[in-house]
Recover the amino acids of this structure.
């Protein structure tokens, strides 16, 4: 097993790794739709209850053929970082407006979490490893749902592109291949949902652009 998560992940990726290359919009990630609704009160609760996570405590199930926690922490130490650096804060409970939102994606066997990144928190450049979720990785999709507008100092790099999102944006990226990283050097928390699961026909309709605006109505 590799002693470097980053180096082994690069070997398994088909990304070009030409960091001077600039891609056209839609290459490194794809905007699929926008959720519309008011979830501001519910989001304040999430911000207050989100629990700090490190690489070790983030809740990863490791596939036997892919780099493990030791390889991840080796990369951090070799970069001169504290292996216990907080990368973001998480909440795993989804109910009410949040369950309505993720149900719209039609994923099966999904896992989801709120990723709340406070100022000073960062997640180093990496490539995802969700191979434990399905025997065929092509059937597994990973999305970000941004819960507030982008604010200055908030960074999300996917490939060689930097995302500048709006509230409700639903974004897909090619998780087995696309390197990405995030950091918050601003003054307010950056809030998103990350959701991963096996695609259904409902999910595939999103890729065909059949649901550009998804309205979320709270239940009385």
């Amino acid at each position: 097993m590799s002693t470097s998560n980053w180096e082994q992940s690069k070997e398994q990726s088909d990304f070009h790794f030409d960091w001077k290359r600039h891609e056209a919009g839609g290459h490194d990630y794809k905007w699929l739709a926008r959720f519309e609704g008011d979830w501001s009160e519910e989001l304040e609760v999430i911000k207050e209850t989100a629990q700090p996570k490190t690489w070790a405590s983030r809740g990863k199930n490791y596939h036997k053929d892919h780099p493990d926690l030791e390889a991840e922490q080796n990369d951090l130490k070799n970069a001169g970082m504290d292996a216990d650096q907080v990368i973001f804060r998480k909440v795993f409970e989804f109910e009410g407006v949040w369950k309505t939102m993720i149900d719209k994606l039609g994923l099966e066997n999904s896992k989801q979490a709120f990723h709340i990144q406070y100022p000073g928190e960062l997640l180093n450049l990496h490539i995802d490893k969700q191979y434990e979720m399905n025997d065929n990785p092509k059937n597994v999709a990973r999305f970000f749902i941004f819960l507030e507008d982008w604010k200055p100092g908030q960074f999300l790099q996917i490939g060689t592109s930097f995302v500048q999102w709006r509230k409700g944006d639903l974004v897909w990226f090619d998780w087995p291949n696309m390197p990405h990283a995030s950091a918050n050097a601003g003054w307010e928390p950056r809030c998103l949902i990350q959701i991963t699961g096996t695609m259904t026909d409902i999910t595939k309709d999103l890729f065909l652009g059949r649901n550009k605006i998804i309205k979320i109505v709270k239940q009385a």
